[in-house]
Write a structure and sequence with these properties.
By secondary structure, the protein is mostly beta strands. It has a single domain, classed as Thiol Ester Dehydrase, Chain A (Roll), CATH 3.10.129. The protein contains no helices and four strands. It has strands at about 5-15, 25-35, 40-50, 55-65.
Length: about 70
């Protein structure tokens, strides 16, 4: 997005697949923008443990506000 632009969340969906336990080791988060248009954007993210098992995933739909 251009400088000065920002997003406001319209919808957020989270799915917890496995518990994240204290002392379980490193976790990794990866996110990507699926679409960023003039007025709306969507994105998704995944959280996995060190062995690659999925712990949680989510999606969001945002409104894009530009100066």
């Amino acid at each position: 997005m251009s400088a000065g632009a920002f997003c406001s969340t319209l919808q957020l969906n989270l799915h917890y697949v496995r518990p994240l336990r204290i002392g379980a080791g490193e976790v990794f988060a990866e996110g990507r923008v699926l679409h960023c248009g003039r007025t709306a954007a969507t994105a998704e993210a995944y959280i996995t443990d060190a062995s690659g098992k999925l712990l949680a995933h989510g999606t969001t739909h945002c409104t894009v506000l530009r100066p």
